[in-house]
Known about the structure:
By secondary structure, the chain is mainly α. 76% of the residues lie in helices and 0% in strands. The protein starts with a helix and ends in a 5-residue tail after the last helix.
Amino acid sequence: MNGALGLLTRGALAGAAGTTALNAVSYADMVLRARPASGTPEQTVSTLADKAGVEIPGDGSQQQNRLAALGPLSGIAVGIGVGVVVGAAAAAGARPPWWAQAPLVGLLAMAAADVPLAALGISDPRTWSATDWLSDAVPHLAYGLATTAALPAEP
């Protein structure tokens, strides 16, 4: 794979690696603190579907089960999408050193996840505790580190 298309593809793969790291850190946090999974991904999908006039098929538990799958799938899509953006930036020549790029990529992924929550009224980050912020920031930093590591420094 050469050129911009190769970097976009590698960006998508790097985003998938970052998503895996984010999920692993999030699940480890859930195990260590015995905290429940967040319901915000499902709420986001449900709210977006409502706004778009799209009905999630099924009744009762069937619909809830679909939302339980669509929430994490949307997170995977966001993670891969951010990787594509990072690959596009690399193709355009934006190649900061890894120690600067990793937190920036993590911050970009965090914004891609949190801005819709706030915009849709699902959560207000201004009300989050320090623990809430750490629970969000640490997995996104892991995303940034893994995505940066997986994206080759040279085209």
